[in-house]
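Title: Prediction job returns without error message
Component: structure pipeline
Severity: low
Priority: P3
Assignee: unassigned

Description:
Job completed but the reporter wants confirmation the result is attached to the right record. Sequence as submitted:
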Amino acid sequence: MWISKNTLKQLSDDIRKIIDGQAIDLRDNRENNWSMLKNDIHTLAYIKNEQVDALQYERDLMKETLANISHQLKTPLTSMNIMADLLENELAEEEVPEKQIEFLANIKLGLTRMDWLVSALLKIAKLDAGAIEFTKNKIKAGELIRIALKPLDIMLDIKNQEVKFEGAAELFCDTRWTAEALTNVLKNASEYSPEGSVIKIEAGENPITKWISVTDSGEGISNAEMANLFKRYEGSRSDKGYGIGLPLALAIMRGQNGDVEVDGGGNGLGAKFTLKLYQ
């Protein structure tokens, strides 16, 4: 059976429209091999569209479920934090054993850590489920760093740590989520830097990437630690860590066509984490 070039081109154009999400009916009732081919392509396209719709439904359902879980977990945590604050105020007005004050402080610390853990786990679950839609905008590196440092003000103040920033770059990224990734990397740097030390932040760009690096003042990362650094629940180098912060940062960056590069340092040099966004 002879088929003209224009007929082939028309079929090719229709297939491309289907790939782009347009509804094209290719069915042909004539009884020949060409019609059978068009009908099979139409069936394949229909099945593909049904699968895409089902996947989107599952993602929407997962997003809604995670939001409900978040609400159900956050509500009792908030209530317990409030009650702990009220109890602390009551104890402050009375003479009570030091052990009670110590126990209350440990309860508040545990609630704070639990709150962070729940939040981080839900964020990772949303990223895994593809329930996050990154909205990219231009932002200067200095402004992004300022946003990322805000949640760490108290932590840095308690440890008397200084943050020094140099360099310049304008990033194209999701501000909220990239700041979340950077906050986790900065938190890690603070935890592994001694009191009174300096955490160094640099920003820059090249023809391939735009980047922000964070260098701590710690002892560096061994090869054994490096192997598990981004493994969930395993990568923490601290007994008090959960092994979630750095995997979350990596997931956020890779979700935006980026990556996290690590220089382990050592021999008097701290570890260096570089958040990269490919241009």
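Comment from assignee: result matches the submitted record. Strands lie at 137-140, 162-167, 170-173, 198-205, 209-215, 258-263, 272-278.
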